[in-house]
Amino acid sequence: MTLTGHVGQFCALALTMLCVQARLPNLGAQGVNLLRLQKETGPIESLPQPASTEFSVLAATFPQFNFTQPLDHFTDTGFTFNQRYWVSDRHFKPGGPVIVLDGGETSGTDRLPYLDTGIVDILASATNGLGVVLEHRYYGASIPVLNFTTDSLRWLNNEQAAADSANFLRTVKFEGIDEDLTAPGTPWIYYGGSYAGARSAHMRVLYPDVVFGAIASSGVTFASLKDWQYYDIIRQFAPADCIKQVETTIVEVDELLSSDKTQATIQNVFGLPNVTHVEDFGSVLSSPLGAWQNNNWDPAVGSTSFANFCAALGTPNNTRVEITKGVSVNAAVLNYAAYVNRTLVARCRAPNTQDDCFGTFDPTAFQATDLSQDWRLWNFQVCTQWGFFTTAPPDPERPRIISKFITLEYSAQFCQFAYPPGEHFAIPPLPNITAVNSLGGFDIAADRLAIIDGQADPWRPNTPHSDDAKPRPDTTLRPFKLIEGAVHHWDENGISDHTAEPPTIKAVHEQEVEFVKAWLKDFKRPGKA
Ligand SMILES: *[C@@H]1O[C@H](CO)[C@@H](O)[C@H](O)[C@H]1NC(C)=O
Ligand SMILES: *[C@@H]1O[C@H](CO)[C@@H](O)[C@H](O)[C@H]1NC(C)=O
Ligand SMILES: *[C@@H]1O[C@H](CO)[C@@H](O)[C@H](O)[C@H]1NC(C)=O
Ligand SMILES: *[C@@H]1O[C@H](CO)[C@@H](O)[C@H](O)[C@H]1NC(C)=O
Ligand SMILES: *[C@@H]1O[C@H](CO)[C@@H](O)[C@H](O)[C@H]1NC(C)=O
Ligand SMILES: *[C@@H]1O[C@H](CO)[C@@H](O)[C@H](O)[C@H]1NC(C)=O
Q: Which ligand is nearest to the CA of 87?
């Protein structure tokens, strides 16, 4: 999805770079622009910001190790790479399980809080388990290649990444631990949130004898090309007054953009006269909305930027203001324009033009392939296997909070710009989402596979809790839980005093402990009756 909400990982070596935590980053082309602008001009409010000092402390707390993986699990290339992982043995007792958290589409260092006070620590503590964070190939420091060209990215796919995890579970030897903790002799509980949540579900389905149990939190198991529902969830669950202001603005702005006579006038109001394409102008307007995904129950993790945006929009009324002779707009439009001008437009400075900052129609802007271009990673996955392109609702009558000019064609064109055909690999015209969905999509299910989602999560339409998915019972063997009012994988983080967590979070953590303990009771070492 445009950056907006689908902000990308951007996190490099710990503290040397500004680090943006990945939250299923469908950032797309405008997202790449905004990350670059942020790098040059400092934190942009609507992009998620990490608590970066915490990471360095945790990196010192948990030892880091390498695991040797083949570059290609299916064809021998002769090459291997180091896959990073971190271990917490603070709760481990012989006989305990391993709780592994899949790092997904970001540096594993971003996931260390979950090893310390989050879900891994919670489950390990309850089961005498060993906690592990496993970094995903190509992310963080687990990089098997020298650059991110299309050819070099051809081993970044779901099949290779799943095979990495299976290989790790089957063969890892933990330093300082005498027991053989490999699967299937030891039960492994696999946890992931968001993209990693889908991976968690996939692992249980693809490698049932290696992954004893799995939790898919906000797992996006249903891949779609047009993901118009992302913003529709925000429209349904964000504060009503705020959404009314956004709807009013978008409808009026779209109307003015539709006529040559008024297009320049309305772009001027936002301080964006020189953005050539209305699609780019529309996508800049949607970017503050992505902040919805940064809401978290723990103020230390979440951000108030969505609330700040709403505050800037004011309360709905019918005041109209003339912007040029004979053309007037609702006061909401001017509030929205002032917010965009202040938080985004003002950062675009000479010698950059507004198209340099906010344009996405120049293929050459997306062709750098050195290892610092880590936006190329998740976007490559999007462009090949996952989709999730932001679009306006297909039904023009449906209320909307993003511009009608955001089409599939617009959101997907960047794939062809960023990943020109190589000698060994070319991306498809549109991502082939068949492989993902053939693993179950909305219906993905298995014994000891838990599905946990958030009611107000913009990614819920891509999970088994989608309004389009069939209802299912919630059982101990197949837990199926929707956290009321929650956004994106809100069960993944925790605070050191779990009793002080909000009731819904405390409850889901307790339920996760309960069903994992019940699963473990059923564990039998293979080969032993
Ligand atoms: C892990 O591998 C990387 C290179 O991929 C290397 O820089 C690092 O020192 C290794 N770490 C350990 C603990 O061996
Ligand atoms: C990328 O790396 C490969 C080796 O893995 C090399 O052959 C190729 O020339 C590099 N391409 C660029 C553009 O750096
Ligand atoms: C945008 O903000 C700048 C200050 O950064 C101000 O000078 C300019 O007038 C504003 N433009 C609009 C159209 O509000
Ligand atoms: C827009 O382009 C014109 C003509 O090149 C230039 O004079 C003006 O400064 C630009 N305005 C902004 C806000 O970039
Ligand atoms: C309507 O909203 C605008 C902008 O939020 C505000 O300036 C104006 O005072 C409001 N008018 C009324 C009548 O409340
Ligand atoms: C998409 O992938 C599926 C399986 O992964 C394959 O069977 C199918 O041929 C692919 N479709 C296209 C158009 O390449």
A: 1
The finding on whether 80 has its CB within 6 A of some atom of ligand 1 is no
List pLDDT tens digits, range 164-215. Answer: 999 999 999 999 999 999 999 999 999 999 999 999 999 999 999 999 999 9
pLDDT in tens, 454-471: 999 999 999 999 999 999
Banded model confidence at residue 396, pLDDT cuts 50, 70, 90: very high
Residue whose C-alpha is closest to residue 167's, from 65, 80, 73: 73
- Identify the bridge partners of residue 451 per DSSP, sorted by sequence position: 216, 480
DSSP collapsed to 3 states, 371-412:
CCCCHHHHHHHHHHHHEEECCCCCCCCCCCCCCCCCCHHHHH
Secondary structure E strands in 16-63: none
Domains of the chain, residue spans: 65-222+437-521, 225-418
How many other CB atoms are there within 10 angstroms of residue 155's CB atom?
23
Tokens of 408: 């599939």
**CATH 3.40.50.1820 assigned to 65-222+437-521:** yes
d(CA 249, CA 252): 5
Q: Which atom of ligand 5 is nearest to the CA of 317?
A: 1
**Separation of alpha carbons 99 and 104, rounded Å:** 15
Ligand closest to 341 (CA) is: 3
Angle 465-470-471 from CA coordinates, rounded to 5°: 70
Phi-psi category of residue 375: left, alpha or beta, with phi > 0 → left and psi -120 to 50 → alpha: alpha
Query: Angle of helix 158-171 relative to helix 195-206, nearest 10 degrees?
Result: 60
Closest CA to 62 of 140, 195, 175: 175
3-state secondary structure of 503: helix
439 Cβ closer than 6 Å to some ligand 6 atom: no
